[in-house]
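Researcher: Quick test of sequence recovery. Tokens follow.
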């Protein structure tokens, strides 16, 4: 097969449809949910996408096609979780285990069940990772609240109210156990999500600012630059789609 000729033919037949870009954006957002450790959002996302998208054709054999897609999913999820802080050994060993199970799966339904189990396992471990450095139940609950409401305009007061705690008490406890203020933790979590979106998506600063609950685009840019030392656009120019390539070079 002439690869270049085949590529040109497929691109011509596909036209300028935005379907691929939309699917890509949804896919990346899905991986981000897993890496965030937000089990509730993951379950909601799984309900939304189940049966709504037909996988691309990687093989004429339906079972083999499902297995190929499942293996790709496994590799991408493990990479996203590594970027979010999971130990490389844990991520890769989990990946190996699931790829072996996928390879042995006798039906398409079994492959899909393994995919769901894989996603929840990675997500659960990321959730546990976020809590591993804390001791008290209140701080665990505060972190859970922040992760599941990252799109909201979060404040110490709103988090304290959600936990039925005094805001001063929560602030003092959080600083004592986490080593940083609750306000800075909220800011860092939002900027971490923004960095990931800038690395992998084409969304504008305004869209990201609105998505993460910032009061304005200018406020988002100001906070982003204060945290990273770069504007969002500067960060994107340096890091867009670079993380995986760097990982491959280091291996």
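Model:
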């Amino acid at each position: 097969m002439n690869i270049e000729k085949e590529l040109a033919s497929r691109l011509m037949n596909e036209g300028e449809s935005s379907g691929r870009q939309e699917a890509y954006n949804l896919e990346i957002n899905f991986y981000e949910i897993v890496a965030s450790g937000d089990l509730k959002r993951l379950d909601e996302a799984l309900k939304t996408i189940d049966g709504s998208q037909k996988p691309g054709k990687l093989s004429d054999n339906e079972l083999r096609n499902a297995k190929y897609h499942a293996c790709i999913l496994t590799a991408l999820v493990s990479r996203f979780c590594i970027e979010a802080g999971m130990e490389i050994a844990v991520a890769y060993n989990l990946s190996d285990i699931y790829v072996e199970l996928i390879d042995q799966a006798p039906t398409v339904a079994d492959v899909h069940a393994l995919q769901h189990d894989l996603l929840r396992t990675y997500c659960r471990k990321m959730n546990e990772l976020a809590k591993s450095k804390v001791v008290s139940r209140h701080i665990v609950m505060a972190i859970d609240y922040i992760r599941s409401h990252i799109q909201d305009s979060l404040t110490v007061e709103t988090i304290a109210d959600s936990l039925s705690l005094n805001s001063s008490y929560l602030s003092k406890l959080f600083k004592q156990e986490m080593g940083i203020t609750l306000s800075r933790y909220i800011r860092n979590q939002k900027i971490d999500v923004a960095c990931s979106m800038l690395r992998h998506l084409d969304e504008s600063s305004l869209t990201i600012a609105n998505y993460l609950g910032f009061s304005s685009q200018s406020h988002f840019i100001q906070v982003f630059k204060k945290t990273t030392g770069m504007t969002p656009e500067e960060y994107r120019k340096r890091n867009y789609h670079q993380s995986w390539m760097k990982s491959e070079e280091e291996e």
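Residues 86 and 129 are 7 Å apart (CA to CA).
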